[in-house]
Amino acid sequence: MKSSTPASPAPSILVRIPALAKKWKVLSSALTVGGLTLVVKMASTAQHLVVAYRFGTSDALDAFLIAMALPMLAVSVFGGALHAAFLPSYVDMCRRKGDLQARVLFGEVLATGGLAIMVVMILLAAGFPLLLPMLCAGFSTTKVAMTRMLFYRLLPVVFFSAFSSLCISVLNAGRRFAMAALAPLAVPAVVIGFLIATVQTLGIDALVYGTVCGFAVESLLLGAALLHRGYPFKPRWRLGTATRQVARQFLPMAAGALLMSASELIDKSMAAMLGPGSVAVLSYGSKLTAFFIGVGAFSLATAVFPHFAALVSAQKWDQLESMLRSWIFWLGLICLPLTLLVVVFSSQIVSAAFEHGAFAAADTEVVSRVQALYVLQMPFYITGIMGVRLLSALKKNHVLMAISAVNVVTNIVGNLFCMRYLGVAGISLSTSVVYLISCLLIYRSVSSTLRHEKHKAALQPEVVS
User: Fold this and answer.
1) 151 pLDDT band (50/70/90 cuts)?
2) Which run of H or of E encompasses 114?
C-alpha cells in the first residue's frame, strides 16, 4: 500500500529560509551602515580637500600628522579593543539574562574603561617628549617644537573617542546602526567649519581645535542616543563575572591592536626620515584606500559582528561558516576590479582631487605612486577584517595579538627594504604586503578554530529543546 504522504522538498526549503533571511538581514544592515558611512566619508573627503588646499605638503601639516598619530594610535587601540571585547559579552548577556543585566555590564565597563583611559592619557602626556626624537627624525628644531605643542592640544581626542566607542558598541549590539554610523559626521563637519572661519587667523591651530571639537560633538551625540534609549550613565565599581571576562578579552585585544596600529605610527615616523613633506604625501596617498575601506569593510564588519556574536553564542557553526564564505566571495568579486581601476587611473584621480591651491603638480606625481601601491592592500584588508571580527566573536583575541606581532616585524623589515628603492612609495607597498600576509594568517586561524569547534560539538550528546 502506497503512503498517502508524498515526498516533498519543503523541509530542505524551510531549512534554507532562515539562512537566507539571516544573510538578507546582514546585507540590509550593511547597506544602512554603508549608506550613512558613505555620507561621513564624503564629508571626510571634503575635509581632506580643504586641508590640501590650505596646507598642501607644508611643514605645519607634517607636524600636525605626527602630533595626531599617537592620540589616534591610542584611539585605535583602546576604542577598537574595547569594542571587540565588549560587544560579544554584551550580546551574550542580553540573550542569556536579559537587557537589565546587560545594562549592569555597561555600567561596570563604563567605570573601569573611564578610569583606564584617564591613566592612558596621563602616560601619553608624560611619555611623548621621550618619543619625539624617534617620531620626528628628520624634523628641524622648530618643527619638533610645533609637533610637541600640537600633541598636547590634541590629547582630549583620546577621551572623547574612547567614550564614543563604548556607546557605538551598545548601539550596534542592539542593531541600532544608523546613529552609530552617522555620528562621526560631526568630526569633518566641525573641522571644515573651523578651517573656513578661522584658518586665516589661526593657521594650523584651526585644524587642531576643529578636530578636538568635532570628536567632542560626536561623543555628545552618541551619549544622547543612549540616554534616549534609557541608558543612565551611572558607573558601577563592583565588577561582575561578565566584566572580568571583558577585561580578559580586552587585554590581548589591546596588545594586538597596539601592535597592528603601531604600523601606521611606524610608517609615519619612517616617512619623516625621508625629507620635508613625506609624511603629508603618505597621508594623501592613503586617503582613497581609507575611503573604500571605511565604506566597504567597516560597514559590513559593523553589521556582521553582532550576527557573528549571536551565532557563536548559539553554537551554530555551519551557519557561521556558510555566512563567512559567502561574504568573502562577494567581497573579492567587488574589490579586485576596483583595485585595478585605481592602480590604472591613480594619477588622474590625485590630480582631480588635490591639485589645487597649495597642492602642486609635482605633489600629484609622487602621491599618485603612493596611492597606486597603497590600494593593493584593499582586497586583503577588507576580507581580512571579516576574519578579525569572527575571531573576536569567538573570543580568540590572543590569536589576533600574535598575528599583529608578525605584522609589525614584517612592516618594519618591508619598509626598510622598499624605502631604499622606492622612497615614500616603498612604505605603501610594504603596507600592502603586510595585509596580504595578515589575511592568510587570519583565515588559517579561522579555519582551524571552526574545525575544532565543530569537532567538539559533534562529540557532545545532542540536546533536544
Assistant:
1) very high
2) helix 99-135
**Residue 167: closest CA among 177, 158, 157:** 177
Annotated domain spans of the chain: 35-454
Supply 389's cell numbers.
571580527
Return d(Cα 134, Cα 184) in angstroms, integer: 31
Q: Which residue matches cell numbers 567614550?
A: 163
Q: Which string of b and e fits 277-290 if b means at least 16 CB within 10 Å? A: bbbbbbbbbbbbbb
* Grid cell at residue 40: 561621513
Residue 303 or 19, more confident:
303
User: DSSP letters of 224-243?
Assistant: HHHHHTT-------S--HHH
Please give the average per-residue pLDDT across 444-455, as a whole number: 85
Can you tell me the distance from the alpha carbon of 214 to that of 210, in angstroms, rounded to the nearest whole number?
Answer: 6
Cα(129)–Cα(157) distance, rounded to whole angstroms? 18
Give the range with max mean pLDDT: 91-95, 238-242, 244-248, 409-413: 409-413
CA distances from 138 to 266, 269, 306 (A): 14, 9, 45
Residues 6+ apart with CB under 8 A from 166: 82, 83, 86, 106, 109, 110, 113
Backbone CA torsion sign across 181, 182, 186, 188: positive
Hey, CA dihedral for 291, 293, 294, 296, is it positive or negative? positive
The grid coordinates listed for 202 are 589661526
**Length of the chain in residues, anyone?**
465
Q: pLDDT for 339-348, tens place per residue?
A: 999 899 988 8
The model's pTM: 0.62
Q: What is the pLDDT of residues 30-69, one digit of tens each?
A: 666 667 777 887 888 888 888 888 888 788 888 898 888 8
Average pLDDT, the chain: 80
Task: Tell me the mean pLDDT in the region 228-254.
Answer: 70
Residue 408 in contact with residue 266, Cβ under 8 Å? yes
